[in-house]
Amino acid sequence: MKKFKLLMVLTIASMLVTSCGQDSKSSSGGYYSGWGNSGSGSNTGSTGMDSQGQALFDSIINSGVFNCTYGQDSNNMFNNNYLKIGNRRGTIVANVQGGNSYNNSTVAGNIQEGMLPNESNQHFVGVNGFGDFVIFTKVLSGNNVVGYNMRLSLCSRYFSYQNYNFPIIADERGLQGVQLKNAVTLDSPTNCPAGTVDAAHLLVVADYYQYSQPFQGQLDPVGINVSFSTPCL
User: Fold this and answer.
1) For the segment 39-55, what is each residue's pLDDT rounded down to a tens digit?
2) Distance (Å, rounded) from C-alpha 89 to C-alpha 105?
């Protein structure tokens, strides 16, 4: 874990230097999705995509510094079995906006689809041991924080039955939404080249899913818990 966090420190430092002033275009189509009723969801367009925050995010994706673990998600079960972890899902972009609930150390409120304009260069990175990561970026109006853009990259989750894999979180299954279970705690430690997410607990809710093998049926909406903490200790 120490090597993992050290690698993250060096990677962020390098990317913050190289991303300044560059326009970022993802190397993978379909990165930018809302909730959607199927597939990866709606295309959010270019708002907020040509920014240092997006350049940082794309650099992390392309560097492979966070690889999906392809093991078990010990925090989530389905039919009394831990969910399995697979390939990385298309990125979820969203925002949290509001007034008095925002300050320099917390994010609270409802998560909504799409990106807010006027991103700052203040980014906060959170990770977990499964390969998921999130970046919250402050959005400013003058000197006032009016919200945060959220870029969320999840490894897919699925369960197996009779040698068939059924997606819970995956590109082929849409989402009903993402919720903050409590306020996100942010920090700006001196030992890290970017801000950090010290604690974030999200509920990611998958939409209905129709399947045809080994027989026809439907999976109802289901939520999984995803938590993040700092990459820098």
Assistant:
1) 344 434 334 455 677 77
2) 29
Quote the tokens at residue 52.
Answer: 């240092």
Contact 111, 95 (CB under 8 A): yes
Q: Which amino acid is at 122?
A: Q
Peptide bond into 214 cis (omega under 30): yes
At residue 209, the 3 state secondary structure works out as: strand
d(CA 164, CA 170): 15
The single residue listed with the structure tokens 């962020």 is 12
**DSSP letters of 41-69?**
--B-TTTTTSSHHHHHHHHHHHHTSS---
Radius of gyration of the chain (CA): 17
Phi, psi of 30 (to 5 degrees): 80, 10
- 134 token code pair: 């999130």
Q: How far from 100 is each of 96, 106, 131, 148, CA to CA, in Å? A: 12, 11, 33, 13
Stated pTM of the model = 0.84
Q: 119-127 and 195-206 as β-strands: parallel, antiparallel, unpaired?
A: parallel
Contacts of 6 (CB under 8 A, 6+ apart): none
User: How far apart are the C-alpha atoms of 13 and 108, rounded to whole Å?
Assistant: 27
Contact criterion met (CB below 8 Å) for 114 and 94:
yes
pLDDT of 18 over the 90 cut:
no
Contact 175, 203 (CB under 8 A): no
Contact (CB, 8 A) for 29 and 43: no
